[in-house]
Write a structure and sequence with these properties.
159 residues; alpha+beta; Jelly Rolls; two-stranded antiparallel ribbon; 3 helices; binds fe (ii) ion
Length: 159
C-alpha cells in the first residue's frame, strides 16, 4: 500500500490515513490463510456476504465496468476490498475534501467507509483480484457526486 496526497504528491503516513478514517490491514494472500482474517473482520464490522471480483483484460466489458467507478461516488455501505493479486488505485476524499490516493496491491485490505466520496481506477497492469465484503449488497450501488468544487480530473456528473 502506498498513500499520497494527490495534489502535492506528498506521502501519507499510515497513522495519517487511519486518522482520516480509512481502515487498512495487511493479510496473507494464500488461499485458506486469509479466511481467518476475513472472518474476524466480518464479525467485528457486521459484514455478512463475501465474494471475489476478478478484473483483467479477459473480463468482458472491462472498460464499461471501470467507467462505473472512475467518477466520484459514495455508497451507503462500506467498500471493503482485500487484494489477492494485481493492483488498483482508490482516490478517497479526506475529511476536508482533498484527494488521498491509495495504491493497493496483493495483501492489502482497505475499507472505504460508507458515505465517503471516492473513485477507483485500475493501474496500467489492468488487473486486480479482490475479496469483497458486504453488509448489504443493495448498499453498494454507486451514488455519484452531483457537483464538487476542486474536483480536478473528476468528469461530468452522472446520476
Ligand atoms: Fe465505490
Amino acid at each position: 500500500m502506498r498513500a499520497t496526497w494527490l495534489e502535492s504528491e506528498k506521502p501519507m503516513a499510515m497513522s495519517e490515513l487511519l486518522a482520516q478514517g480509512v481502515h487498512y490491514e495487511q493479510w496473507p494472500t494464500k488461499e485458506g490463510a486469509y479466511q481467518t482474517c476475513v472472518d474476524v473482520l466480518m464479525e467485528a464490522r457486521g459484514y455478512v456476504e463475501q465474494d471475489i471480483i476478478d478484473l483483467s483484460e479477459a473480463t468482458p466489458g472491462l472498460d464499461a465496468l471501470c467507467e462505473r467507478f472512475i467518477d466520484e461516488h459514495l455508497h451507503s455501505d462500506d467498500e471493503v476490498r482485500f487484494v489477492l493479486a494485481g493492483e488498483g488505485i482508490f482516490d478517497i476524499r479526506s475529511t476536508d475534501d482533498r484527494w488521498m490516493r491509495v495504491l493497493v496491491e496483493a495483501g492489502d485490505l482497505i475499507v472505504v467507509a460508507a458515505k465517503r466520496h471516492h473513485r477507483f481506477l485500475l493501474t496500467d497492469q489492468r488487473r486486480i483480484r479482490c475479496v469483497r465484503l458486504f453488509k448489504d449488497r443493495s448498499g453498494w450501488v454507486p451514488e455519484y457526486r452531483r457537483c464538487s468544487e476542486d474536483t480536478g480530473s473528476v468528469s461530468a456528473v452522472r446520476v
